[in-house]
Amino acid sequence: MNRYLVLWASLLKLSWKQRPGFLTLFLFCQVLDIAALAFTGLALRDAIDAAQRGVLASSIIAATTAAVCYAATSVLRGVAQTLRLQAIERIGVAELDTLIMRYIVGVEGIEHLERPQFLDRITVLRGAGWGVMDSTWGVVEAVLSTVRLAVLLLLLNTVDPWLLTLLPFAAVPLWLDKRGQGAVAKAEVATAEAMRLQKHLFTLLTTAGPGKELRITSAGGELARRQTAAWDEAVEARFRAQLASAGWKLCGWVIFMLGYAAALAFVVRQALTAGGSAGDIVLTVTVATTLRSAVQQTVSRSAEVASYKRLLDPFLWLRDYVAREKAARPVTGVPVPRRIEKGIAFDRVSYMYPGTKHPAVDEVTIDLPAGSVVAVVGEYGSGKTTLVKLLCKYYRPDEGKITVDGNDLTSLNAADWWERLSVAFQDFGRYRTTFGEAVGLGDLPNKDDSDRILAALRAADAEHLPSRLVNGLRTQLGKEFGGTDLSEGQWQKTALARASMREAPVMVVLDEPTASLDAPSEQTVFETYMRNARDLAQKTGAVTVVVSHRFSTVAGADLILVMRRGRLVEHGSHEELMALGGSYAELYSIQEKAYSLPQS
Ligand SMILES: Nc1ncnc2c1ncn2[C@@H]1O[C@H](COP(=O)(O)OP(=O)(O)OP(=O)(O)O)[C@@H](O)[C@H]1O
C-alpha cells in the first residue's frame, strides 16, 4: 500500500507542477460542493420548520438558500469533472505516456522486450498514462467523497445519533467490491498471454504479407481456429472473474439497502412519536437520498482506484526494473574511443537467454582486429545474432568479457557506445515516416541532410529508389498513413542506407543485410560495404561485422567466424578455412555447387 501512496503523492506533485491552476480550482470546487450539499439539507429543514411556525420571511430566505445551494452543487460538480478530465488528459498522455516510453526504450538491455513474463506487463502499459494519472485524481476524489459522506452522516447525527450505524453498512459494499476487482485484475494478468496470442494471430491473418503465404499453405483455417481458441480462453476467464465481481458487488448493495431501509423507518417513527419536526423528516429523507449516491460514488471511485492496480503494478514494476538495471549498469567514466587502435576481443564469453537450457554463445574467445571485416557464419540458431547483440551491448555476457582496446565493454557508457555504431539487423524497423526520414534517422543530428541521405542510399545500392517514389525523399511511407508501401527488398535497402548514415562509426554491424535482395544487388551492396569498411578502417579503425548465410558474401572478409551451437568452431580467412578442410570448407563447397560460386 505504501508504495502506491508514494506513487500517488509523486504524481500529485507532478500535477501540481504541470497544472497548479487546475488542481487548485478542482479542490476549491469540490470543497464548495460539499459545503453546498450540507447547506441544502440544513436550509430545507429551516424552511419547513419556519413555514410550520408561520415565519414566512425566514422560510422564503431558507428555501431560496436551499435552491441556490442545490443549483451550485450540480454546477460545481460539472466544473470539477471537466477540470479533472482535462488535467488527466494533458498530464497523463503528455507526461506519463512519454515517461513510460522513455522507461521502455531507455533500458540498456532488451530482455524486457523479449521475455514473455515481462512482455505481459509492457503490453498492459501501452497507453496506460491516462489510467495511471486517473488513479491519482481518483484517490483525491475518493477522499473527498468520503468527506462528503462523513458530512452527510453528521447531518443525520443532528437528527438522531443512531443513524450513524449506517456507516458500517456503507463500508460493506466497499470491501466486497474491492474483493471482486482483485479477482478481475488477477484474471487480466493471467490471460494477458492468451490475449497477446490472439492479437498476434489476428494480425497474421489480416495482413497482406503472411496472407499470401497462408493462401498457399491453407494454414489460415487452423490459425483462425487457434485465434478463436485463444480469444475464448481469455474472454471466458475474464468473464468469469467479472461475474464473480458483480456477485460480490450485489451482496454489498443488498446489505447496504437493508440498513438504509431500517434507518429510514426508524427516523420516520422517531419524528412521528418522539417530538421530531417535519423539517427533521425532510432533512432525513433529503440526506438519506443523497447518502445513497454519496456511498455509491465513494464505493465506485474507491473501486475504480483499486482496479487501477492492474496498471499501477506493472508501472511500478517497470520503474523498479529501470532503476535496478541502471544500478546494475552504472554509467562509468570510461570514455568510448573515437578510434579503435587495437581491436575488439572476446575472452571466454558465454551468454544464455533467461529461461533456456543451453547457452546461445558458449565460451567464445577471439580477437577482432581494428579495421578488419569480420564475417560470422553458421547454421540457423548457432548464435550469430546473439554474438553481435552482445557486441552491441544489448546483453551482458554471463561469463567472460568483451573488451574494446582493452576496456571492458560493460564499463563503457551504453549511449556513447551506441552513438558510435552503425547497425542493420535482419528484423529491421519499417518506419512509417517520409522516405528521407526513414534513412536520415540513422544519424539523428543529420536526419534532414539530403546530401548525406543520398550518399547513404548510394552505399546501400539504392540511389535510384527516390526517383521511383512519387515525392522522392519526401514520399510518405506506409499505406495506413496514405503513403506508399515499399517492397521487402526496398525496405531492406532503406534499413541498409539508414545504417550508412553515420560517417565515423567504430563498429558496423550488418546482420543478414542482404537476405531480401537479388544476387546482383547483394554483390553490389557487399562490394560497396567492403570499400566503405576499408575507408572506415583508415578513419576510425572500425570493425565491420557481417552475419550471413551466403558464403559468396563473406569470402572476401579478413576473418571468418564459424559458429555451431553457440561455440566458435573455426576461424580464419577464407583461404585458411578452405585449406583446413573443416565445416566451412564443406558448407562452402555445397553452396559453390548449388550457386556455382567462383572457385577459391
Ligand atoms: N530472445 C531469445 N530468447 C530465448 N532464446 C533465444 C532468443 N533469441 C535467440 N534465442 C536462442 O538462442 C540461440 C541462438 O540464436 P541466434 O538468433 O543467435 O542464432 P542465429 O545463428 O543468429 O540464427 P539465425 O541464423 O536463424 O538468425 C537459438 O537457439 C535461439 O533459439
UniProtKB/TrEMBL annotation:
UniProt entry tagged with the keyword Transmembrane: yes
Top-level taxon in the UniProt lineage: Bacteria
Annotated ABC transporter domain residues: 344-590
GO CC field: plasma membrane
InterPro entries membership: AAA+_ATPase (IPR003593), ABC1_TM_sf (IPR036640), ABC_transporter-like_ATP-bd (IPR003439), P-loop_NTPase (IPR027417), Type_1_exporter (IPR039421)
The name this protein goes by in its record: ABC transporter permease
Gene3D superfamilies membership: ABC transporter type 1, transmembrane domain (1.20.1560.10), P-loop containing nucleotide triphosphate hydrolases (3.40.50.300)
Entry keyword set: ATP-binding, Membrane, Nucleotide-binding, Transmembrane, Transmembrane helix
